[in-house]
Amino acid sequence: MKHFNYKNIEAFVFRLWTREVSREKISEKEDELLRQWKISAEESLDAVHMKESRERVLSGLEPYFTSSEKTISRRSLKRYSYQVAAAIILLLSLGGLFTYHTFIKPDIYLAESGNRIVHLEDGSVVTLLPGAELTVSKSFPASTRMVNLKGDAIFSVAKSKTHPFIVYADGFSTKVLGTVFKISQSGKRKAVDLYEGKVAVSSTGGPVSFLKPNQKWTNFGVAHTTAVISFAPDKASGKQTSELLSLSFNDVPLKEVISVLESNYSTKIHYPKEIENKKITADFTGGTVGENIESLAFVLGFEAQKKENTYILKK
Question: How far apart are the first and last CA of the chain?
Fold first, then answer.
């Protein structure tokens, strides 16, 4: 393995540490270097030596993460942050990749061709669907249980009234205290299906949505759009029916607003094409099809005329 002098090692380790904080992805070349470095570092360590190394590292870090003072000044806090960073860099530089992989690098679980079941330390169970990736930090579980998800997965979260469980996905997050739900991510289309308990879904540019069992949050594949849909069996046919409970747009082009309304209300809406890119902010909650389209016309300063199953928006 290529020899590095101390300054190069320190710079490389500091770069990795900052990427861990910012959640920036490590390149394949860097990952391969980490793997080789880890193998080289562990070849000379027996089981006893590895155990003693872990204890020394934790003992060295402890003074930086505990404080008997109740308040810290800004100046002290800044100095404290530098001390923590310096301690981590020094330990990583001297301890090699063994320390990095054991105590800092998050665990990554990938479902390649089939489903993969992941048992978390708090008792929660995550079923990753094909292609999904779950990232869990070494600090899990902490006061707030946080994980990152790419793709689709079903979560059965261990209940805790004092330790929320948050799943960070692509552009939205789901917060729970203990429940069963599914997260789906297909291109721009995002969704959360709730089976048990309660969840709060937050998305960029949208309001927080609170779901109950048999409800679904989705953005219909449109940025800054949120909707809550309720599902229930039809007593006559026995088939599942759906009801749009709420629909919100925040600075969304009119053409995309119209597309969502047409697909969900099974209707057709005509409007002047010259305003199709006009940004719309509107909240449709609990209204009928006609009432919501009338509300949209009001936002535009237009009138809405209905002909059979078609609405015409005009000045």
Answer: 74
- Provide, for the chain, the percentages of residues in helix, strand and coil under a 3-state DSSP scheme, each rounded to the nearest 5: 35, 35, 30
- Percent of the chain beyond pLDDT 90? 50
Tokens representing 298 are: 């009001």
Per the listing, tokens 């360590």 go with 45
**Under 8 Å between Cβ of 166 and 144:** yes
Q: Across the strands, what pairs with 128?
A: 116, 153
What is the per-residue pLDDT across 118-138, written as a single tens digit (0 to 9) for each? 999 999 999 999 999 999 988
Joined tokens for residue 273: 């094409």
Q: Is the pTM of this model over 0.90?
A: no
φ/ψ (deg, to 5) at 149: -130, 135
Judged by DSSP in three states, 263 sits in helix
pLDDT exceeds 80 at position 185: yes
Tokens for 71? 């308040």
Distance CA 263, CA 281 (A): 19
**CB contact at 8 A, 195 and 181:** yes
User: Whole-angstrom Cα distance, residue 216 to residue 117?
Assistant: 23
Cα separation, 174 vs 269, in Å, equals 33
Q: In sequence order, what are the residues at sequence separation of 6 or more whose Cβ sits closer than 8 angstroms to the Cβ of residue 138?
A: 103, 104, 105, 106, 107
* Residue 289 and residue 269 in contact, taking contact as beta carbons nearer than 8 Å: no
How would you class 296 by CB atoms within 10 Å of its CB: exposed for 0-12, middle for 13-18, buried for 19 or more? buried
Contact 66, 18 (CB under 8 A): no
DSSP 210-251: EE-TTEEEE-TT-TTEEEEEEEEE-TTT--EEEEEEEEEEEE
Residue 251 has pLDDT above 60, yes or no: yes
